[in-house]
Amino acid sequence: MPEIKSLLKEERVFEPDAAFARQANWNKKTVAEYRKLGATSPKRFWAKMARENVSWFSPWKKVLDWKPPFAKWFVGGKLNVSYNCLDRHLEGENAWRRNKAAIIWEGEPGDSRVITYAELHREVCRFANVMKGLGIKKGDRVALYMPMIPELAIAMLACTRIGATHSIVFGGFSAEALRDRINDAGAKLVVTADGGFRKGEAFPLKPAVDEACKKTPCVENMVVVQRCGNRVSMKRRRDHWWHELMAEASPSCPPAKLDAEHPLFILYTSGTTGKPKGILHTTGGYLTHVTTTAKAIFDLKDSDVFWCTADIGWITGHSYVVYGPLSNGATTVMYEGTPTSPGPDRWWALIEKWGVNILYTAPTAIRTFIRLGDEHPKSHDLSSLRLLGSVGEPINPEAWIWYHRVIGGGRCPIVDTWWQTETGGIMITPLPGAVATKPGSATLPFPGIHAEVLDQEGRPAKAPNGGFLVLQHPWPGMLRGIWGDPKRYREQYWSQYPDTYFAGDGAHRDRRGYFWVMGRIDDEMNISGHRIGTMEVESALVSHRDVAEAAVVGRPDAITGTAIVAFVTQKGGAKAGDALAAALRSHVTKQIGAIARPADIRFTDALPKTRSGKIMRRLLRDVAAGKKTAGDTSTLEDLNVLAALRGDDES
Ligand code: WTA
Q: What is the mean pLDDT of residues 39-58?
């Protein structure tokens, strides 16, 4: 598989620091023991984790029920996620955590709130009662379209308290994208806010919900948090203010005793078709996975302040802003705004202000900060940091080294964690007290996780050849399906190799067995760590009246990792040019959201196709990257098309 051969030649090795290793939650000995157990019996390993890290109302009868590709974990066990994240920190020997900070929240304008475990418990119970009052019952779906404010975490936990299934839609998605997700999930209730602060201004959210809910027959009620005070219109009987309902609600609500396989949340992610997939996660396995990984990989201690910078609208925020840290009784930081507002040092000021000990962020952010200059982090005291994490895309060794040196002061281990919306929690990662790291490698699978890189024939790829990243044994946090679409679930993830999960990433392993993940090999792009399907952008483009055909590919970008390039053939009569390009960019923003806006739009008379009519994306990728086209072009229907796209006729 010559295309998936890594060009990275990174040989530096960072051994675990002895002082860090001595105090680590999981040291070398623990990790060796768990690796052994996880290799011989993943079921026994995960059952041990479920017993030690999660509180159950009643024990499971069977650890794993595996009827490929459908898994059930901890069958018959009963538990409640909000009980694990809240109540158990208020009782018995943990009762001292009552007044410990659960959430340290900072708004973009500089306002802040520190919410203790006891207070968070009361707020969650109140909102659970509010939802009950609005007729929400176990199994109902609730859509959350909110800024990064504590009410989002409160609403999530309140759903888990009564067994409602939340579906969070990132606040950057457009009204159209929101509408489709609300309808697909069949949400009865939408929780939103008037707006949130971004880049120094109030960014309105309620109007998008109003627009979306013109065509969402399933929605009965809407609860609106007043965050910015911007004017919104409230529809009588349907719309309610959060603060008004909360003022009336009782602060006590018993946690529902839910089945381990009760649907916890749906989270939509891009796929290889135009329609997003509703990834379904359930209760017991997911909580076991995120609680265990947060404790082991982030080495969470009661004294730590942990900051995962992801928006809760993405899986990273679900698992490592909210559920993983809170289930461990940790202090988690939430920041509302943009990293560079009001100035380029905002994050570093936040770390200094709150004494953040562990920082978990994305390579695209790191690369942005590299460009902004070392003087910004250097103007703040970052000595509280003791561990750094990276997620969302491959981290290039230069960014890794900068992160280590400038942010970590050369003393903090870096955990480069590979996982996906579908996996629920971290899968391939260093353990900071036990595993030597190499910049650019996510190192080794977590104990109990059976990852491999396979070639086309299904054999383990031999270094230096690469292949497809797969998971060969079910794991507790795995998706349980695609909401309402078991056929697509099977085809998308389980049809490439027998009983094996196909991740959609290319990777290779080095001689030490370390994994080097190279990125998506399917029709998905990873833009600043956000997954966008090429088909999603293409269908948005062709829905514009001036577009006849569109093909979308990614090209490498120094900051965002990948940038979107759209090749467009316009309809007769439409004039190609800057005006149409601008119109198409805003059209895509309206259809999907600003994260999907193409960086480049290139007009062309025709798209290169095979004789069977398939668009030749590999060629377009080369053209977009400005490369001379490599490989076999004999199937090209019209070589002139390619020459024209590359601008050969000009040279
Ligand atoms: C990519 C985010 C390399 C990968 C948690 C994966 C990574 C997709 C890494 C999932 C990493 C995530 N190294 N690539 N450490 N982490 N990815 O669903 O392509 O938003 O398939 O989940 O991000 O993105 P998602």
A: 98
Of 149, 218, 151, nearest to 178 by C-alpha is 218
Distance 448 CA to ligand 1 centre (A): 19
Q: For ligand 1, is residue 500 a contact (CB within 6 Å)?
A: no
Q: Residue 36: pLDDT above 90?
A: yes
Multiple choice CATH, 524-650, 3.30.300.30, 3.20.20.70, 3.40.50.170, 3.10.450.590? 3.30.300.30
**Ligand 1 contacts CB of residue 526 (under 6 A):** yes
> What is 117-256's CATH topology?
Rossmann fold (3.40.50)
Tell me which amino acid residue 21 is: A
250-276 burial code (b ≥16 CB/10 A, e <16): eeebebbebbbbbbbbbbbbbbbebbb
Does 578 have pLDDT greater than 70? yes
Residue 304 in contact with ligand 1 by CB distance below 6 A? no
Q: Is 123 in the pocket of ligand 1 (CB under 6 A)?
A: no
Cα–Cα dist 358/301, whole Å = 10
Read off the pLDDT of residues 158-204 as tens digits, 9 standing for 90 and up: 999 999 999 999 999 999 999 999 999 999 999 999 999 999 999 99
Q: What is the mean pLDDT of the chain?
A: 93
State whether the beta carbon of 520 lies less than 6 angstroms from ligand 1. yes
What would the pLDDT profile of 7-19 be if each residue is shown by its tens digit?
455 678 999 999 9
pLDDT at 634 over 60: no
Question: Which residue's CA is the nearest one to ligand 1's atom 12?
Answer: 392
Which of the residue ranges 24-28, 81-85, 135-139, 559-563 would you say has the lowest mean pLDDT? 559-563
% of the chain residues with pLDDT over 70: 95
Strand partners, 561: 557
Task: Tell me if 8 CB under 6 Å of ligand 1.
Answer: no
Residue 3's pLDDT is what? 44
**Ligand 1 centroid vs 393 CA: distance in angstroms?**
5
Cα of 218 vs centre of ligand 1, distance in Å, is 33
Buried residues in 3-37 as b, exposed as e (16+ CB within 10 A): ebebebebeeebebeeebbeebbbbeebbeebbeb
Q: Yes or no: say if 129 and 253 are a contact pair by the CB < 8 Å rule.
A: yes
Q: Please indicate whether residue 519, judged by its CB atom, sits closer than 6 Å to ligand 1.
A: yes
Cα–Cα dist 387/20, whole Å: 9
Residue type at 408? G
* Residue boundaries of the structural domains of the chain: 117-256, 524-650
Q: Which atom of ligand 1 is nearest to the CA of 316?
A: 5
Ligand 1: does its nearest atom lie under 6 Å from the Cβ of 531?
yes
Any atom of ligand 1 within 6 Å of the Cβ of 282? no
Please state which of the ranges 51-60, 508-517, 625-634 shows the lowest mean pLDDT. 625-634
For the ranges 226-230, 504-508, 642-646, the lowest mean pLDDT is seen at 642-646
Assess whether pLDDT exceeds 50 at residue 474.
Answer: yes
Question: 138 C-alpha to center of ligand 1: Å?
Answer: 32
- What pLDDT is attached to residue 630? 53
Dump strand ranges (E) for 558-617. Answer: 561-570, 600-603
